[in-house]
Amino acid sequence: MLPDISLAVRLQQIDNRIAELTREVSSLPRHIADIERKLESHERKLEADRAAVSANQKERKSLDGDIQIQQQKISKLKDQMLQAKTNEQYRAFQHEIEYCEKEIRRCEDRTLDLMGESEPLERNVKAAETALKQEKAQVETEKQQTRERTAVDQRELDQLTTERRGIASQINPAVLAAYERVRKLRGGVAVAEAVDGRCSKCHMALRLQFFQDLKRGQQIMHCESCSRILYYNPPANYENLAGEPAPAARG
């Protein structure tokens, strides 16, 4: 294999890995943002549940106060009834007492409803507080792991970038220019192996003479379909257990 081809193959391997690492590094902050948004939504839900519990308790306290006021009114009205001088006055006091008693029953019924509503609300708040505590710990763990992973990826990116510059300085400028041109046109892949008489990337069959020339490895050759730089790896020769050459894996 020509030195420039070997360098181009390694350059492609480096570029593939750089692209992979770049995608990973860029995806990590998005992952953190996603889990933080999810955490924030759970925090808002918990705050809403807490507010509902608080509103429930506040209304019950207000109802207790209303009941006390109505009871005080009834006590005063009963005292006034004793001093009534006519039947009409007596009945008027009686009607007012009945109204106060009706208000007390209304407040008591509403209090019972609120007590029934408060039980699931309070259970939800306790469960959400426990879950949120665990989720916060998990988020912090993932954030730390993400920071560590990003640092590892960045170190590898720096090493690969340095190696890439070294290879780019060694490869023939014309080959490098062709590599970069095709890489931009073909989604970042400028080099392809020829396997079984086909380009392994576009899968187009190579002309027989073209494939034979590629096997000789005496010149830089491009796929006539996708323009990628082609290279050919001859099958490794090995002996079978009987000590005789085994048939080639591919040709």
Walk me through this protein's architecture:
With 251 residues, the protein is mainly alpha-helical. It contains 4 helices and 4 strands. The chain has helices at 3-81, 87-170, 173-185, 208-216, and strands spanning 191-195, 198-199, 221-222, 229-231. Strand 1 and strand 2 (198-199) form a beta hairpin. Helix 1 (3-81) runs antiparallel to helix 2 (87-170). The longest helix has 84 residues, at 87-170. The model is unreliable at 238-251 (pLDDT under 50).
Count every helix, treating DSSP H or I runs of 4 or more residues as helices.
Answer: 4
Give the DSSP E fraction (strand runs of 2 or more residues): under 5%
The CATH topology of the largest domain comes to Helix Hairpins
Q: How far is it from the N-terminal to the C-terminal residue, by CA?
A: 16 Å
Overall pLDDT confidence = 91
| Oligomer description | single chain
Give the class-level CATH name of the largest domain: Mainly Alpha
| Secondary structure category | mainly alpha
In total, the number of domains comes to: 2
- Unreliable spans are 238-251
C-alpha Rg (nearest Å): 41 Å
Shape: rod-shaped
Would you report the number of β strands?
A: 4
Read across the widest sheet, the strand sequence of neighbours is 2-1-4-3
Quickly describe the structure:
This protein is mainly alpha-helical. It has four helices and four strands.
Please tag this protein with its features.
251 residues; mainly alpha; Helix Hairpins; 2 domains; 5% strand; disordered C terminus
Write the layout of secondary structure elements.
Elements: H1 3-81, H2 87-170, H3 173-185, E1 191-195, E2 198-199, H4 208-216, E3 221-222, E4 229-231
Parallel strand pairs: 1-4
Antiparallel strand pairs: 1-2, 3-4
